[in-house]
Amino acid sequence: MAWVGIFGLSEPGEERDMREExxxxxxxxxxxxxxxxxxxxxxxxxxxSDELLERLIRDAGESSHLLRRRIFFSHRDLDKVLDDWxxxxxxxxxxxxxxxxxxxxxxxxxxxxxxxxxxxFKVNTYIQLTDDEKYLEEGRGLTLEETRKWxxxxxxxxxxVGFDPDRTFIFQDTEYIRNMYPLALKVARKIxxxxxxxxxxxxxxxxxxxxxxxxxxxxxxxxEKRRCLIPCAIDQDPYWRIQRDIxxxxxxxxxxxxxxxxxPPLMGPxxxxxxxxxxxxxxxxxxxxxxxxxxxxxxxxxxxxxxxxRKLGGNPEIDVAYQWxxxxxxPDDGKxxxxxxxxxxxxxxxxxxxxxxxxxxxKFLEEHQSRREEARELINLYMYDGELAREMWKKIHE
Length: 398
Ligand code: TYM
Known about the structure:
- Helix 7 packs across helix 16.
- This protein folds into two domains: 3-265, Rossmann fold (3-Layer(aba) Sandwich), CATH 3.40.50.620; 281-375, Tyrosyl-Transfer RNA Synthetase (Orthogonal Bundle), CATH 1.10.240.10.
- The chain is built from 17 helices and nine strands.
- The chain has helices at residues 36-43, 50-60, 65-68, 78-86, 105-121, 131-136, 144-159, 173-188, 193-200, 208-218, 237-246, 288-297, 306-312, 320-329, 333-345, 350-385, 387-394; strands at residues 23-26, 29-32, 46-47, 72-76, 91-97, 125-129, 168-172, 227-233, 256-260.
- Residues 1-16 have low confidence and may be disordered.
- Ligand 1 is lined by residues 27, 94-98, 106-107, 109-110, 128, 130, 133, 217, 230, 232-233, 235-236, 260, 262-263, 272-273.
């Protein structure tokens, strides 16, 4: 398939090993060592400039390590979102999850960042669970009953993040479709098959549900007649590219987006964590022993022997434990800087670095899991009974 975001693969469908400089980024697959600068160029997004970063932090009234460290590094129209905000027109947030199984730590990062934005800007937030997409996606082999069940399970993890129940609507496509379908039809009529084929790499064998599906993922960006800001990893951007070409002709705003990099998988600094390799990720439901074991086995930037490590030091750039601290688990720049310095100098050993991360992950997941239990009581507020949820469901009878 001629996937957008493939660099160096010459022929559609061609099977061969990728060269080192090659990588693939699509909404369904990330492989190889991603060159984020090349990706920005290829997708036509923009790197967040220092000025824009400062402006966002100023408007938010607080900084976030996810921004400072450029984990969220690219955008579309973020400046326009801030124009709207500063002029009092406001904006809204939209993000989502494809419920194909349990969520891992990478999947939850965009939700924590979305919550941070919601807390700072006090805006409505829509969260789509695409049980339809994950059923249609070929190669997954999931039944519709399974993806619908995973949507409910994943909703608990998302609710555990702590969104404002009255400003948040979490919905699952197979339930909420009745409200979305009229608009989905209007969107679908504007997108022809050769366009989605070019953007997503569909071919003559792709099931027709997949070629309609992009219309469904676009709809929540049209839930309000204000600008929508979409926090997500950059793999989801192809949808927003189409959205931006059709939305104005339907009387809506072009969607804005803020894109993150991928939290690297445990076995090395390339690709994305994958359900097909459970050792590549830590799942939100996992217990202490699995967490300890997985981090202990993670790819390290340390030297092969203690003597060499003391002498030459470790390489944080390729060390997964350091990268996880950098991406998410050590928000304090001072503490992180010290860890980096000690690791580079050889003072901090690989095993010690892994233990620092292990403690952080254990604490984070213990808290997450207990908030997930509490969320069982709250989930109806997010999906059906909260102020925003009720307003959205009421639209069926309009
Ligand atoms: P899904 O379930 O593949 O991913 C959920 C969210 O997690 C991001 N992501 C990651 N972020 C950091 N590190 C990683 N290793 C990592 N892997 C995945 C994804 O970019 C996404 O933000 N089709 C979508 C569901 C969806 C959606 C949306 C996502 C529907 N509407 C709007 C974002 C915004 C999907 O299958 O996501």
